[in-house]
Amino acid sequence: MTKPNLKGLTLNELEDFALSVGEKRFRGAQLFDWLYAKEASSFDEMSSLSKPLREKLASVACIDSLKLVEEQSSHRDGTTKFLFELSDGKRIESVLIPPRTAFDEQKRLTLCVSTQVGCALDCKFCATASMGILRNLTAGEIVDQVLHSQRISKKKITNLVYMGMGEPLMNYEPVMNSVDIISTGMDIAPRRITISTAGWAPKIRRMADEGRKVKLAVSLHSLDHNARSELMPINRKFPLPELLDSVQYYYRKMKSRVTFEYILFDGWNDRDEDIALLASLSRKIPCKVNIIPFHGIDFTHPTGISARLQPTPPKRMAEFVAKLRKAHVTVFVRSSAGDDIDAACGQLAVRVERARKTSVGTAHLQSPVANRRSA
Ligand code: SAH
Known about the structure:
Blueprint lengths: L10 H10 L5 H12 L13 H10 L6 E7 L6 E6 L5 E7 L12 E3 L3 E3 L14 E4 L2 H15 L5 E4 L9 H14 L7 E5 L3 H9 L5 E5 L5 H7 L2 H4 L2 H15 L3 E7 L7 H13 L2 E7 L10 H5 L5 H13 L4 E3 L13 H11 L15 E2 L1
Parallel strand pairs: 1-13, 4-7, 7-8, 8-9, 9-10, 10-11, 11-12
Antiparallel strand pairs: 1-2, 2-3, 3-4, 5-6
The structure holds S-adenosyl-L-homocysteine.
């Protein structure tokens, strides 16, 4: 029988584990502190526990960790991307994003984490979609992206965005457990944690019903039913009226402004009609709109509508943003972070996986240290 992995267990679960191996309940809190606040990666490091207890724990349980496979840093903006290997050999990525502008709080360091290996949603602009869904991540694998990235960068992560590979709300319990662990054990307050969804409406309602204090972001990308359905097949399952109802429900319960993410595609969702639709939405639901430049992904999507999607030219983008502001929409333009290092959702993992399959340039992927490269 394989030993249970303690990394990823919540405080309650660690207390239950302690009791199940004949120890007192308070051992659960000690383990919680060692695993998450003190970042122990072995029982040996848990110096406040007696040696016999550490040996006993090591004989009945383990502490699994991700393995760093590749690290890429962007010269341009300091974004760093980590490719991690899971215990079954599958690979995921996390992206470390330094403060973007002079207006950012000085010490802000954001990590973008993955929640699934691959994704089931098949959004036409997203590199992860080309992998299909391989499996959900455990809470431990999500938490470990944070622990590991802190260890590698030797810096404290202050903000988290669940915007890496996968759809967080299709892996609901592990995602929420990871949020609980990170916010109580690792000192990242829920208001500094953002969960981004492609629009899984019933789970947005569930977040509201459970009073989840994280920030919510919704990948909107269009308010036109046909255009959005072509970009994001999930729009046929939970069409815009149902999605926006759930967002309004969430706002009423949580009183927290939602962020709508909006990648601009040339001639697709950047018309004046789209500005009018966004303006009308922002009058109904208090929100921010994040305009995102499109990272081209033609290497994963050579055919179909994906091949026709192009970024909106900078001039039209500036005009689009100015018109939104004039219409009193709160709008931010997300800089093209990590554009030079495949930093959009799934790009690095997919590119490396392809290289592995065609055995082009794979030798250098074995050693994380030899392998740190700058783009
Ligand atoms: N499934 C979740 C989280 C993963 S995608 C969601 O849909 O929100 C998170 C964000 O990555 C999306 O909103 C989108 O803004 C961004 N993204 C994905 N592919 C991109 C690309 N090719 N260019 C720019 N942004 C991209």
